[in-house]
Amino acid sequence: MTSLTSAPPASRTSPERTPRSRLRFWRSPAGQPRWARPALIGIAALAALLYTWNITNSGFAPYYSMAARSMSVSWEAFLFTSLDPSATLTLDKIGGFLWPQALSARIFGFHDWALVLPQCVMGVISVLVMYRLVRRWQGPAAGLLAAGLLTVTPVAASMFGHAMLDGSVTMCLVLAADQYQRAVRSARLRSLLLCGLWIGLGFQAKMMEAWVIVPALFVGYVVAAPVRLRRRLGQLALAGALMFTVSLSWVALMTFTPERDRPYVDGSTENSAAAMVFGYNGFNRLHAGLVDGAAPVSGNGLWGSGGATRTPPTGSDAGPDATDGRDQGGTSRRPSSAPSDGPSGPPSGRQSAAPSGTQSHGSTPAPSGTQPHGPTPAPTGAPSENTDRKGRAGAAPTGKQVGSEAPSRTSLWLKLIRSPRLTPQIAWLYPLALISLALGLARHRKAPRTHQGRAGHLMWGTWLVTAGAVLSALGNLPHTAYVAILAPPLTALSAAGTVALWRAHRATAGGPRAWLLPAVVVVEAGWTIHLASKHVDFAPWLIPLLVAATLVAVLTLAPFGASRRTVLVGLLAGCVAMFAAPTTWSLSVLNERYRGSAVDAYAGPGNDTRISTGTRTVRASDVRVPTTPTPTQSGLLDYVEEHEGAAEYALSTESWEASAPYVYAKGAPVLPLAGLHADTLTLTEYRHLVATGDLRFALVTEAGTKTSEISSWVASACAEVDPRAYGATGRGGEQATAQTLYRCEPSDATSH
Q1: Dihedral of CA 55/61/67/69: which sign?
Q2: Nearest to 95 by CA among 290, 240, 306, 253
């Protein structure tokens, strides 16, 4: 009986081709068939086309693009991954994914294409490295198929074409797997250390998500590395130490730098980078309250209430004099010598869960099952007359899918196979990958411990299962790009299984095993048709094509003595049946209508992700972030810069959204009094900035004067600037009724 083999056939190479042919990029290196390099170049070109097609109009992601702008003009903001150029407040996550974007913007200027360009490069690198990974494991044919399948995975086609964090972590994990593969084949410590380095860099891009790959690499190396167990464990310990060192380097920087010399950590209630990373962005998404000091997360986990909510004020406690306990000795980076109101209190004093009606400028926690990318500025790029209850223009976008009932726990667990939003982006290859994994492990069950065929299936399979379990446990996934970490194992296993099944089919004379490949084609095509049937209006010709290709594949691959040419036709038809649908969805990004957005990676139709802009709810793909200030905003900024003197800050605003137009315009050192979750300063600290002359102008709203202690103080102590001084036309002019500019003198801080 013929068995499935994972060993690739000997490559047909020409004797005249030598290693020198590497200098000619279009020619395959020695040891690879002639068609390998040209085919790989074609796949890479397709990937580059998909990722860069919309590069000049890809749009900006709210919140993140402001941070990228700040980091592009300030090395201090770059180091601390700060939201504002003066490095007063960090993002609510590690912003390492913005480092390439900020460098690109510094070199080429701040454009949407400058932010997207590094992502496009990362996508092409991922495709090329995927070929090398699978080629070493299963041969060049499987490597090419894996690279091609990664290219036409819909979520990847949209994700790498937009400036978002998931592309960075995907590339880092693929590169980590590449170095792991080198290490597990030869037990080279250097390669294993490089693997740990890439995982650590992935952690800087998207924190704990990068660690999803660790169980797979650990199990694979312990099982298959060709050295004694004691040495295997020692090498893993060294690589793990490097991985943790690189992963936690930013957290250590924020932890050991005095609070007065660094930004406040958004996403935490105690100015703690560890709480933000491992609480708000980590374990608290599985169960509320596992890590103290983190900003509340609403309803994101399966096993908890989802986090605390703001406590409403009661009676006379809510008012201008109400405090949230933050003026009890907490000091911030700005100012470095601000006096405190008392000797006791929390270390940093800030509480993002402040009662409503106090001086809390921070955004309310996201609704159930959301993790916002950040509030969306008003259509003009600045606050509008429609302000929220905290006096800020617009509300934070929820990033959630609206118009549906709250999902049950069962549906949350099964969302990776049932969600109409997630499955078209990643689920096409589920049956093929799982069947390939099962067959691969079964045929290598008696192989030696160090057999690389089994090691590969063990590593990719553990990665797939671990990532799937984590994504399922997270409850609602607010952004489809989360599922991109499933793409490498799905494409690798699917490619390896397809090639192995084809080789076995060619070597099988007849019998039940000869039906294995046709059966797999039918199962995979059936699942694909099932997913495509939910969007019959999109490419209506797709399902008839899949059905026809499946019939041709079964008839020509059936063991009825078909000729070699007929069997090749069957292989081609089978590939069409299994891969035409995701390819169609990925190619749709060439149409602007189906490209997704900087807020949500989604190729094809059916993107129902909605966010709130305060006055209306819009599709994520319709979000537009203007980076050109209005004439009034330009005039206001020019006026402030002309009269600010030696002040450290140009002006203060009540929220990061209100700061955005001025940061986008010139990278101005604007002081936002709130990020997504945390307030930046206390009133005492704010008055100290005014007293020292570091801050002279403040931009506040009428609603803010009623709900914010700082805004109320500014309105009562500082002098209002006539709007006509900076080009507005008075109370009826552009945005004059939305916000008011005040000028504060040092004497104001001491006389009121």
Answers
A1: positive
A2: 253
Q: Which residues, 6 or more positions from 389, have their beta carbon under 8 angstroms from its beta carbon?
A: 356, 703, 707
Side chain identity at residue 633, one-letter code: Q
Find residue 610's DSSP bridge partners: 619
Of residues 468, 421, 472, the one with CA closest to residue 302: 472
Q: Are 70 and 663 in contact (CB under 8 A)?
A: yes
**697 pairs with which residues across the strands?**
743
Report the alpha-carbon distance of residue 416 to residue 408 in Å, rounded.
14
**What's the DSSP call for residue 347?**
S
Name the pLDDT band for 295 (thresholds 50, 70, 90): confident
Residue 693 and residue 686 in contact, taking contact as beta carbons nearer than 8 Å: no
Residues 386/394, Cβ–Cβ less than 8 Å: yes
Tell me the three state secondary structure of residue 232.
helix
Rounded distance between C-alpha atoms, residue 567 and residue 593, angstroms? 39
Q: Which amino acid is at 147?
A: A
Rounded Cα distance, 15 and 233, in Å: 43
Q: Is 30 left (phi over 0), alpha (psi -120 to 50) or beta?
A: beta
Q: How many residues does the chain have?
A: 752
The string of DSSP codes covering 10-27 is PP---TT--GGGGGSTTS
Angle at the Cα of 443 (from 439 to 444), degrees rounded to 5? 120
Report which listed range, 340-344, 467-471, 616-620, is most confident: 467-471
What is the rounded CA–CA span in Å between residue 155 and residue 602?
6
What confidence tens digit (pLDDT) does each residue in 36-65 have?
A: 889 999 999 999 999 999 999 888 888 899
